[in-house]
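Re: How this chain folds, sequence and tokenised backbone to follow
How to read it: Take the token row as a discrete description of the fold.
Start of record: The labelled sequence and token lines come straight after this line.
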Amino acid sequence: MNAINEPEVSIAALEAGDIDPQRFDHEAHVYAGWLYLRQFPLAVAIAKFTAALQRLTAKLGVPEKYHETVSWFFLLLIAERRALSMTDSWSDFRCDNDDLFCRDNSILSRYYSDELVDSELARHCFVLPDRLAS
């Protein structure tokens, strides 16, 4: 198995808002979530990660980029996948969960309609999926 490089992000950097937005892509978001879930219980990880994202988007002048439902959804999936994993390695996690990294958000669309994800309610409050995963 080829080693997967860890994105250049840390909990401390995210919480300080010391993140280069050009390098904080979807994979870096998933990695940051994975780091929080590795260090904290799920409820604490959700609270800390989402607060850090909200502070970061506010600091960057784009608070509208924060999406509560998408953030929680991915954290919940990452937590589930970590619980099922036989390893605590980012490289193994990344290789075993390729569907979490698809650019077309196909995993999100298996659970949520575009209408719900695009709603103001979903943006500001976690909402349960309106689709059954296939």
In short: The chain is about 55% helix and 0% strand. The mean pLDDT is 92. Residues 11-103 form one domain.
